[in-house]
């Protein structure tokens, strides 16, 4: 059994659907302080650093247990977006995303006994269709506050799919974790069957 250092429902659902035995415990890190220390590193490197920090922030209950940390971040036209602080903030994000391409960078890291053993990142490109004010209002009427914890103000498994014209990249990356590489690493470390 692994330890998932996340409170994300989507990451939990991915692992459950894949048949991975885990327990979850939220990691407590100061993401903004960590990012400031990275001095403008490229988004995939920031996502990897955050995933590693989360994997290291949750101590394992038993020696040798693997801890899985994961993080996602969104960049649109060079501007980094965090989770919306309010419904109005979410609406402002959606207005900015309208008609633009969203870069979604997801990363995962595995740690054991306080050391990072493995880390990978993946990127998906999501082309946001032009969004009207009416659509943004109606969308948030239905999806708020559920999307408050979502860095791109969407849940692809819900109405968030209506935001996009095209998506290039792995479905699991869009959900918030590069699951296929994670499963490969878990097989390598003997956590799931080969």
Account of the protein in words:
- The protein is α/β, with parallel strands linked by helices.
- The protein has one domain: Maf protein (Alpha-Beta Complex).
- It is 35% helix and 26% strand.
- It contains seven helices and seven strands, in the order E-H-E-H-H-E-E-H-E-E-H-E-H-H.
- The chain has helices at 9-17, 31-36, 43-57, 87-97, 133-143, 171-175, 179-188, and strands at 2-4, 22-24, 66-76, 79-81, 101-112, 115-128, 164-168.
- Strands 1, 2, 3, 4, 5, 6 and 7 form a seven-stranded mixed beta sheet that branches.
- A hairpin with a 2-residue loop joins strand 3 and strand 4 (79-81).
- Helix 4 (87-97) packs across helix 5 (133-143).
- The protein is globular.
- It starts with a strand and ends in a 6-residue tail after the last helix.
Annotation keywords:
Maf protein; 194 residues; alpha/beta; 7 strands
Q: What's the gyration radius in Å?
A: 17 Å
Number of β-strand runs? 7
What is the CATH top level name? Alpha Beta
Q: What general form does the structure show?
A: globular
Sequence stretches where pLDDT stays below 50 over 5 or more residues: none
Number of domains: 1
- Total helical segments: 7
Distance between the termini: 15 Å
* Helix fraction by DSSP (H/I, runs of at least 4): 25-40%
Strand content: 25-35%
Q: Overall mean pLDDT score?
A: 95
Task: Briefly note the CATH topology name.
Answer: Maf protein
> How is the main sheet built?
7 strands, mixed
Main structural class:
alpha/beta
Label the CATH architecture.
Answer: Alpha-Beta Complex
Topology as a string of helices (H) and strands (E): EHEHHEEHEEHEHH
């Amino acid at each position: 059994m692994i330890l998932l250092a996340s409170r994300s429902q989507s990451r939990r659902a991915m692992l459950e659907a894949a048949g991975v035995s885990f327990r979850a415990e939220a990691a407590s890190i100061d993401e903004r302080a960590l990012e400031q220390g990275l001095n403008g590193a490229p988004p995939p490197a920031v996502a990897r650093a955050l995933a590693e920090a989360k994997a290291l922030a949750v101590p394992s209950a038993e020696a040798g247990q693997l801890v899985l940390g994961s993080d996602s971040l969104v960049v649109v036209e060079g501007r980094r977006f965090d989770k919306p602080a309010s419904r109005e903030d979410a609406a402002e994000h959606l207005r900015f995303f309208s008609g633009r391409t969203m870069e979604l960078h997801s990363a995962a890291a595995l740690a054991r006994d306080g050391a990072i053993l493995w880390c990978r990142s993946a990127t998906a490109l999501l082309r946001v269709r032009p969004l009207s004010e009416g659509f943004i209002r109606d969308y948030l009427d239905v999806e708020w506050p559920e999307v408050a914890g979502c860095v791109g103000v969407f849940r692809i498994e819900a109405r968030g799919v209506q935001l996009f014209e095209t998506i290039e990249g792995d479905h699991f990356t869009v959900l918030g974790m590069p699951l296929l590489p994670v499963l490969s690493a878990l097989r390598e470390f003997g956590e799931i069957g080969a």
